[in-house]
Amino acid sequence: MRSDEGMANATFPVTVSREYPAAPLVAVAAVVLDEAGLILMVERGRPPSKGMWALPGGLLDLGEPVRDGVAREVQEETGAEIEIVELVDLFEPIHRDDAGRIRYHFVVIDFWARYLGGDVAAADDVDDVAWVSVERLGDFPMEEATRRVVCKAHGLWEESNGR
Predict the structure, then answer these.
(1) What per-residue confidence (pLDDT) applies to 9?
(2) Which residues contact 47 (CB under 8 A, 6 or more apart)?
(3) Which residues make Cβ contacts (< 8 Å) with residue 43, sequence separation at least 6?
């Protein structure tokens, strides 16, 4: 239970298998931008994306509002406190095994958020964290869909800052 308000507002971590799930799993992530427009990226420490750079995020808990989930996941993985600005896109990674069976299937709801503070460091299932300029995204191995979402969010950030 993640709530101090009692069972009426309690949330529960999803305990189904991530590998070969019975249904798609709902996840959340954030393109976290600081005042200079740098993007907070994480290096994944577990399959299916171990060693790849991605946005901080993870599975939504049962009973957890989406915006609460993204703030919790960013804080758990990086220590960053954020202000969620708006929905950016959906990312739907589906990984099949050699036999064609679905090994992983996530529906990731991506937001962009402002960095408010906190000591940023790798935590939870993350091997590393980095603040990355949009120009340096090509230096990091990541899913093309992640790069697309980051660029879209960065464009929204530029518009909101009159750039």
Answers:
(1) 78
(2) 19, 104
(3) 51, 52, 53, 54, 122, 126, 127, 128, 129, 130
Classified as helix, coil or strand, 44 is strand
- Partners of 30 in beta bridges: 111
- What CA–CA distance (Å, rounded) separates 35 from 84? 14
What is the phi-psi region of residue 52: left when phi exceeds 0, alpha when psi lies from -120 to 50, beta otherwise?
Answer: beta
Give the per-residue pLDDT at 6.
62
Query: How high is the pLDDT of residue 47?
Result: 81
Return the H-helix or E-strand segment holding 109.
strand 102-117
Instruction: Look at residues 147, 96, 117, 99 and name the one whose alpha carbon lies nearest to residue 34.
Output: 117
The whole-angstrom separation of Cα 144 and Cα 20 is 23
* 107, two tokens: 């529906």
Backbone angles phi, psi at 13, to 5 degrees: -55, 145
Which tokens is 120 given?
A: 């940023």
SS3 63: coil
Per DSSP, 148 falls in state: H
Q: Residue 106: how many CB atoms within 10 A of its CB? A: 20
Mean pLDDT by 10 residues, the chain (163 residues): 62 89 96 97 90 96 96 97 97 93 96 97 92 96 94 96 82
Q: What is the pTM of this model?
A: 0.89
